[in-house]
Queue: 2 jobs
Job 1
Amino acid sequence: MNVESYYKNTYLKCKDQLYRFSYHFLKNEDEAKDATQEALIKIWDKQSVWAEIDNPEAWAMQIVKNLCLEKIRKLKTITKHADQLKAENIHTNDPGRISLWQNQWEILQEVMGQLSEKQKTVFVLREVEGYPYQEIAKVLKITEAQVKSDLHRSRKFLKNSMQKINDHGIKSIG
Amino acid sequence: MALNQLDKWKELYWKAELSDEEEGEFKKELAAKKDQLSGELLDLAEWFEAQSSTTEGLKLDSSFDEELMSKIQHRSQASDSWNWLKIAASILIISGLAYFSIWFPTSDERVGLADDKVENPEMAYQDAKATLKLMASIMNDSKEHLNSLEMINVAQEKVKDTFQPKSKSKKDS
């Protein structure tokens, strides 16, 4: 297999996971796309270390995570755009589903706002991408016990946020 | 799976104590029994459903691949041409150095050149004398030609004499 095919089959196939991860951090589609592209170019440039990588997907995720954090630190221009998410990602006119998206985005924002960068990473990788504990531990270079502890904390916030939204009567799923 | 079992798993889910497999099973059960759920279990079922929709909705299309690969190829080409430039520059420097090391006289050779003497000193003296004489005669000829430039001064005086009285009379009036 030549270099380009290996790259496409190993790294480029993770583009959607990388993009989603970036999106949850940067909260902007274009910035998330740029971060994904930047991460994939960085991976291409690091061909010399490919052979040493045990888990390419986890490594790619690590690279995109660092890029996102770097971008956040540099720009600090994260804009809330629930409307954009609503308009661009809902391929349905069902008001019930739209409400579901809005609530989900609100809950996500509420939870993410209370977490540290590491906890955010754990949360997105587990809740959005469905990564196993072991993979998350590899990406973040922490133990599985730490992953579970961070996740426990995040889910506590998740539970509270869901409760809050229910109490305020925002939820209106038909 | 009974609803009370789902309740137990819900508590374990909040504490992040479900295994990977159990969590997968929990999500499937909630999706399957959504109509029978209420309270937190329903919230969670909807949360998982929304997460899975997010995963489906947030995807990059094939144009992303094309754009990325063309950028990568462009970078590779640029770095290739840059490498060629570096090679060309190295060759130029090396050949320049080689040229100087071959053709430039060494210090010994330079001493030899400085000590070099003509074979017939008398003839060399006559040659030098003739050259100096020629130069002197050319210089004298040129000086005679320059004397004609004196005419300019004469002309300048005449022009002055012609125009100055007029300007003086204007001032007086």
Job 2
Amino acid sequence: MLKVFICEDNEIYRKEVEKVIAKVILIENYDMEIKCSTYNSKDILKNINSREETGIYFLDVDLKEEMTGIELGSKIRELDPNGYIIFITTYGEMSYLTFKYKVEALDYIVKEENLNLNKRIKNCLEEVIKRYSIKSENNKVFTVKSKDRIITMEYDEIVFFETSQIIHKIRLHGLHRQVEFYSKMKELENELEKDFIRIHTSFLVNKKMIKEVDKRNRILKMINGEVCLISDSGMKKLKKSNFY
Amino acid sequence: MNILLLFVGIFLPIIYLIRNILDRREIVTLSISIFLIIESLSISNLERISPLLVLVGSSIYLVYKDKFTLKSINIIFVATFNYSILYFSLYAIKKGVTLNEMVLLGSVNFLITIIFVEGNELLEEKVRFLGKYAIGILLAIYDFYIGLGYIGIFFFITYIKECKKNNIQKKEIEGLREYTKTLEKLNSEVRGFRHDYMNILIAMNEHFKEDNLDKARKFFKDNIWQLEKEISLDDLRLGLLGKIKNPEIKSILINKILNAKAAKVKVFIDIDCEVDYINMRKGDFIRVIGIFIDNAIEGSANSEERQVLIGIFKEKDSLNVIIENSIENKEMSINEIMRDGFSSKGKDRGIGLYTVNNILGKNENVILDTMINKGKFMQHLIIY
């Protein structure tokens, strides 16, 4: 069961949020309950019990105390790394990037859009449910650490890897994302041996993403329309794996 | 400009080649002239291949011992030498030479070198009757003028550069002026808001005194709610640009934001740190960011939301820049969008991503993360 926490120092607004959340949970029949609704950040931190439950946190950015909502968010992240944080903010104070990249917030609600509160909260909770259920599915995920970033992508999203002009900088071509990171082709090849095939010094492709082998021009057409070069040994490997 | 350069760099050498063929019908001169043309085509590699050419030419000369090979070797040698001097002095002045300038330098240099070598020879022939010393003096004067020509080219290039720079500065000043105007407008709006706000409080207070709740409710809805909407919230966020300490970067952002406004695209700015030092050549950074924002404005112009987000934030070891825009076709794959960026669709777009690729290919410490997520296209630049 998911537990909802609310931290908002304006009492009227907090009651409103509480009311709407309770309504949405009831109507959509979500497996959630409001565990803590307060004006005080300490109450929130005290009530987190992440070993047994995952939290959904609605936090006002501008709390009338020393700690800002964003700092509270970071603390919550430490205690409940899998929790879902939603910030409540005014337009002028809104710092979308801090929410998204530093605290990995799920979403934010802008106070000026008071009339949409119902819809916004509904969207947020819907998204939580969606992500919560995806997490329990067990898809193969590729993870790589590059300096201070961690890049993750499901195998089914990856089309191929390509070397760049710069040594050890590799470009991942995905269906919805293209991202560079520092690594070595050889290491990737060893790690991904089963599902991927190295068809050229510069290309490591996902077997599932191959559309057709163009033998004459020695290029490999991928299902998203991109093409890769094939070397001599690449041709042999493709033949061995029965791609043509 | 490029056509002119090509003319000077290729057409003139070809004339030179034809003249040589008609004149002497020497196979060696022919081959060396062809080499010269190839050379002027690949000017960036001039320093690298000319020693080889001189070597090949010298050995041919040793076998055939004809005058024309010697002359060609002479031309290659002088051209390379002068080109290197021009190149490196230009490089020293502005820390970098563009391809265009290299072509210009190479072709003009080549032309002058031919005039120089041919002219020296011609002069020597024509004034032979004057005696050794007079020839020497005349040649020295001739060479002196050619030398002046070189210096002239050099100053001309610097002059063009200077003009361009002035233009850019003018644009920057315009952008900053516009920015100041917006801030001033905002300031007066806020002051006006404060003024109205007091009046509203007084009026509200009256309604409460009379205990007339209906009137108070209506008043609140008509006035306070309305007032909030009047303040231009987007302008309020423009103040965040103050966190950027580098005037060039600030001015390019201001310019682009004004462009977006003109295109009726909403820009949301989010800068959560002071930006002064960027571990990348400033010119490169500005070009990349400029291209991303231009693409974002263009990409969002057909979308329903018409929104662009420009964000800058710092992580532990990196500076992060995010340019995000809403897109028209939410089903579009990332590959399709990138391909559009490379293709000739739109005026400058094609050149855009190609340039970005080139620049980022030279910067080892910069990572690009491109993503489509929930109907938004995002370029995320990470500079370590």
